């Protein structure tokens, strides 16, 4: 098999580059951890991808429109300066969903400045009807706004109404309307 011709593998690699902040720090959302330690036996297998031309690490921008996910940094190829990771998306992405539409992280010189709390310890309630009674799954514990005292809800209808990235001469602009992640009682038309 010619690994470099496999678009799924290429996109997986692009994603990993895109969400990498510095060293073992990655943009985390949902139930992912902000720090990753790889299994050395798996890393040894990476040699099989020798034919794939590598991208520069730490790209200045990575836009994943299907996920409505963006990462931007001030200096390509370097952790120096600012890093922003932001997610619009939906509150029904996977069985590992968190109510975190509109969440973001900011790193300065490769170190966390504004974080997403991430995932807690899985319990018997994690994959039950009581999932969203666990604080780490609720939007108020991510850095998503509570609007008129109302948190985001889970379900395929609770999602960003749009997300758009525009490349600019000196950076980029990310816009998202996350009002759709809230139930009607939040009385929000746009956010």
From TrEMBL:
Cited Pfam families: Hepar_II_III_C
Gene3D superfamilies: 2.70.98.70
Record-annotated Heparinase II/III-like C-terminal domain positions: 86-182
Single GO MF annotation: lyase activity
Protein name (database record): Heparinase II/III-like C-terminal domain-containing protein
């Amino acid at each position: 098999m010619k690994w470099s011709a496999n678009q799924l593998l290429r996109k997986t690699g692009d994603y990993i580059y895109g969400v990498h902040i510095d060293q073992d720090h990655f943009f985390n959302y949902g139930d992912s951890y902000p720090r990753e330690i790889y299994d050395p036996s798996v890393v040894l297998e990476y040699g099989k991808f020798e034919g794939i031309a590598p991208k520069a690490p730490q790209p200045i921008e990575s836009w994943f429109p299907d996920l409505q996910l963006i990462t931007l940094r001030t200096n390509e190829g370097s952790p120096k300066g600012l890093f922003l990771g932001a997610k619009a998306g939906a509150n029904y992405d996977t069985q590992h969903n968190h109510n975190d539409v509109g969440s973001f992280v900011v790193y300065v010189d490769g170190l966390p400045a504004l974080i997403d709390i991430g995932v807690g310890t899985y319990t018997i309630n994690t994959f039950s009807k009581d999932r969203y009674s666990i604080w780490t799954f609720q939007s108020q514990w991510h850095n998503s706004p509570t609007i008129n005292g109302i948190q985001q809800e889970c379900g395929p209808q609770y999602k960003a109404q749009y997300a758009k990235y525009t490349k600019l001469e000196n950076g980029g602009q990310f816009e998202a309307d996350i009002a759709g992640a809230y139930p009607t009682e939040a009385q929000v038309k746009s956010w």
